[in-house]
Amino acid sequence: MANQAISSGDKPDTELEREHFLRIIAAFNYYKTYATGRVNRAQQYYNELSKRHKDLLPDFLPHLDQIRNCIAHNSEVIKTMLEGTEDMFENRDSHINGDSNQPKAVNNFDMEKVVTTLKQFFRDWSSGGKEERDACYKPIVEEIEHLYPKSKCNPPDVNVLIPGAGLGRLAFEIASRGYHCQGNEFSLFMLIASHFVLNRSMELDMFTLYPWILYFSNNKCAANQIRPIQFPDINPSLLSPKAQFSMVAGDFLEVYTEEASWDCVATSYFIDTAHNVLAYIDKIYHILKPGGHWINLGPLLYHFENMPHEESIEISYDVLRKVILEIGFIMKRENTSVKSSYIQDPESMMQYSYNCVFFVCQKPNSTSHSPLGGNQVQL
User: Fold this and answer.
1) Other CB atoms within 10 Å distance of the CB of residue 235
2) 3-state class of 231 per DSSP?
3) Mean pLDDT of all residues in the chain?
4) How far is CA 137 from the centre of its chain?
């Protein structure tokens, strides 16, 4: 896996990579302290109750103890996951992980990323996440099989790129069908987790996690908060040795520069992660081969909206659609009301979903194509 591209100020890239890597490792290592602190606050509030109210909650403290046990278990899984991080980087220097156990500053933003990453195992690699995966990934996989059927093409010759690959399940599913597939991910949280599940999982349901233990609200019963998940629900090590599958770290806009190099780019819950979504569209158009396809499914929850010190362009889908056509894409398929959710606890009293847009665009074969003259089909 290639090194993650990080740049800031005038520091050498290797030093910045080292600092970033150690910061993320520190956040994972801090999980037990962070999670236990949340439970301790709950117990502190309980201790301040009147005796009468305490007597009405006889199972409250035993429940907190169960949560602490789950935290300890999650922490052990994290330790196992971090044991393999030195294998993630090609051409690595020994100092990249040489002092990863030294204390580093940890902020709440990073800790929220750790908690979210644990929930991603539920979404991407557990049987309980199948419904979410089917809503988000299945339309993309089926579209690829429709556009590039085995009856008309040789799947290993079809190059598919998945930017924002997360824990790698979508890319894995595409590669398992014989296509040449590469996932790209910027977040080192996700990269560490995907490396773990893809390279360290040797059997079905090998690991257990408790992803919901820090969510004290909207539980129908106390047991839901501490219920486990097992992963992976499919053994990644059984992927055919002939499969062409890889994960590459780095900023999508910086890593992919070669023009006309991909047959298909598939994006799931990705385009709204951009500071400038127009730059994403330009890049996808640039790297697609003439006649290549862009398949997208997701909402427009712009990640940097209202975030301090972050620039962001937020546009509605109708405006985005016009930009897509003006850049030169032909709109082949479109559905603006695809229901899906994102790392949603299916047992929670709070349920939310997105009305996602699903579209398939094609880069024209001819450079003389009129940008606004393409076929437009409404599903």
Assistant:
1) 13
2) strand
3) 90
4) 12
- For residue 366, pLDDT over 80 is answered with no
Whether 334 and 376 have beta carbons less than 8 Å apart is answered as yes
Give 224-280 pLDDT, tens digit per residue.
999 999 999 999 999 999 999 999 999 999 999 999 999 999 999 999 999 999 999
Q: Read off the pLDDT of each residue in 32-42 and give the average, rounded to a whole number.
A: 98
The tokens 């930017």 sit on which residue?
A: 163
**pLDDT tens-place string over residues 314-330:** 999 999 999 999 999 99
pLDDT on residue 89:
56
Question: Are the CB atoms for 311 and 328 separated by under 8 Å?
Answer: no
CA 179 – CA 208 distance, rounded (Å): 31
The helix-helix angle for 277-287 and 317-327 (nearest 10°) equals: 30
**Who's near 79: CB < 8 A, 6+ residues apart?**
none
Residue 239: alpha-carbon gap to chain centroid: 21
Residue type, 369: H
Q: What is the residue-wise DSSP string for 144-186?
A: HHHHS-TTTS-GGG-EEEEES-TTSHHHHHHHHTT-EEEEEE-
Please give the full DSSP string across 79-106, using - where no structure is assigned.
HHHHTTGGGS-TT--GGGSTTTTS----
Residue type, 276: N
CA distances from 96 to 139, 198, 289 (A): 40, 22, 37
d(CA 253, CA 282): 10
Token digits of residue 28: 């994972």
d(Cα 167, Cα 136) in Å, to the nearest integer? Answer: 14
The closest alpha carbon to 337, from 374, 302, 377, 297, belongs to: 297
Six-digit token string for 94: 């020994």
Q: Which residue has the tokens 């339309």?
A: 139
* Residues β-bridged to residue 331: 361
pLDDT of residue 96: 39
Residue 87 pLDDT grade (very low, low, confident, very high; cuts 50, 70, 90): low
Element (H, E) at 288: strand 288-298
